[in-house]
Amino acid sequence: IKIHDLSDLREMYAIINLDDENKGVDQLAWTDDGQLLAVSTRRGSLHVFLTKLPILGDACSTRIAYLTSLLEVTVANHVERELPVTVSVEVEPSFVAIGVYHLAVGMNNRAWFYALGENNMKKLKDVEYLGTVASMHLNSDYAAALFEGKVQLHMIESEGLDAQEERETRLFPADDDKYRILCHALTSDFLIYGTDTGVIHYFYIEDWQYVNEYRHPVSVRKIFPDPNGTRLAFIDDKSDGFVYCPVKDRLYEIPDFSPTIKGVLWENWPMDKGVFVAFDDDKVYTYVFHKDAIQGSKIILAGGTEVPFSHKPLLLYNGELTCQTPSGKTNNIYLSTHSFLGDLKDFGPNELTQMLTQTLMLKRFSEAWEVCRLLNDQSGWNELAKACLHHMEVDFAIRVYRTFGNAGMVMSLEQIKGIEDHNLLAGHLAMFTSDFNLAQDLYLASSCPIAALEMRKDLQHWDSALQLAKRLAPDQIPFISKEYAVQLEFMGDYINALAHYEKGITGNNKEHDEACLAGVAQMSIRMGDIRRGVNQAIKHPSRLLKRDCGAILECMKQFSEAAQLYEKGQYYDKAASVYIRCKNWAKVGELLPHVSSPKIHLQYAKAKEADGRYKEAVIAYEHAKQWDSVIRLYLDHLNNPEKAVNIVRETQSLDGAKMVARFFLQLGDYGSAIQFLVMSKCNNEAFTLAQQHNKMEIYADIISSESTTNEDYQSIALYFEGEKKHFQAGKFFLLCGQYGRALKHFMKSPSTEDNLAIEMAIETV
Length: 765
Hints:
One of its GO terms (cellular component) is intraciliary transport particle A. InterPro entries: TPR-like_helical_dom_sf, TPR_IF140/IFT172/WDR19, WD40_repeat_dom_sf, WDR19/dyf-2, WDR19_WD40_rpt. The protein is an alpha+beta fold. Helices cover 42% and strands 24% of the residues. Among the domains are: 52-160, YVTN repeat-like/Quinoprotein amine dehydrogenase (Methylamine Dehydrogenase, Chain H, 7 Propeller), CATH 2.130.10.10; 361-474, no CATH class. It has 29 helices and 32 strands. Strand 26 (263-266) and strand 27 form a beta hairpin.
């Protein structure tokens, strides 16, 4: 007989061989639940086969107990590599419970207890309860059975001592309590149970009394404590999941919790205390409880894993899920969220990046380090470092930042790693991750709330800093107000800037107050209160303030006030420039001795010349170094050619020399005119003038003392040649290098010039 599972018809579920039946099978029939198969044969035999076992199992730490046949239970510990031990039971059980040293099986209101040995089990006793047992849990000494809304807690092996009698057994709840118990659990120290009124009670076995209770809005249907009993997952009547931490009396909702979830298993691997799985018929969801995160404790969903049909999870150890199957066996499944536990060398960058995300979600930083080492990518190291900061793993973060050379972060973390105040440390780490609002909240909740103010000041968040200072450090308000005012001024919010500058005045800090008063002056001017601003600026000792306020007023076209401030600040050039713009020449004249800008002197000189005040104009032109204008005024208006001539000689001004030459030409002083034409490089005009007025000797004398071209010497030589002045002609032919002609003219020189001519002739030869 071949049996197939409808979930996968290609797989054969079982084969039944009827070797003794040689006449063949007659009929087949299933029971309604599909657990039993009846086969009749033509020989008249009736065979009944068990096709699937009830899935009964329990786990305690890494030890599991499960039903392997209707009358057989197997206890195994694959993690510790212990050999499985089987025990035959007297009746088909409806519940199984495993403890540290004991096994319990039972049905209806009766339970049989066995002591676990090395290779066998010893039956201890059987116990009858007051009702049908729904579930049972064991620890090293006690059993707790749930029946008809009550829990009976009793010792498994009574020591029989009188002092212990009261601790041998107890029934919950007490007679005067009117609630029903819906679920319970037993840890090494506590009996924990949930009620229909939504209360979770913690009963401390050692002190034999209640030590904690949590009140939930609706009834609590199932509870699942972690191996240490410090966290409790539970499912309420609305099928919502939560984790309760009795130490801090805090409740955390499990996100994305499916209403079909049947149960929860906590990770038993000692290094992974915050991991648990929630399972339904088809899938297992991996969750991580992030206890020490800078945002506070929270639960995240890490991922999901498909489970084969009819597999019931019993135990979770280091990402390996041990499931019980209907055939009475166990099957191990590796969670998809723990794929990084294999050999990483066979994976490419994309798979390694996904694994890095998994390791960081599960806080497996050592494995994340290995993944980053294989990825050898800066972004991977950065992700690991950020995760370390997020989970407050400061030492590991230092190691990571040191690996990829971020010396700044290493130094910063070294400074804070010894801080014991959790909130203060978390605040620093939140600041390092640029989550400044969170950092502020954490600082304020710490023993050093002033750190929030210091952070806001460092970030130049002056508005927030001001609010914090009102609570934490009122004495800092003036200094923060001043900084905030500077920021507001930069943003153009002059109204509020003025208000904060005024708030910043302390009355006892001179330097700070001067800065605030300077701000008040500038803001008053910008707001249109010019009188107040100018008065404030004049009273203020700072020259720079007067300059800045003057510039603001100048932009506002308030020229007289601007000039006044420039003058008070001894910025005479700027003051004079502004006085010129408002045509206040009298003030410009007063300031001129202090003015160094030639441009201002020039403007003033032009204005005075236009007014006909030539003496003042000349002085201003001289200060402006406008020598041509000085010469022009001396010649045209002040009738002082000597001064003009002196200036031309001093400055060697070409245009000035031309003007002087023109002046002497008008006077008929051709010799002087020729001299200044040569000085102005107008040699052709000078030559022509010398020709016209028979002043060539003068021109020749002047030219001889100047650096002149050969053409000029030749022109003079030709002129003297035409005039039959042989000595002069020879002299200038000699200068222009025409030695033959020069010698000829020297030889023709009249006897009056014989000696000199002979000397020149000898020099020529």
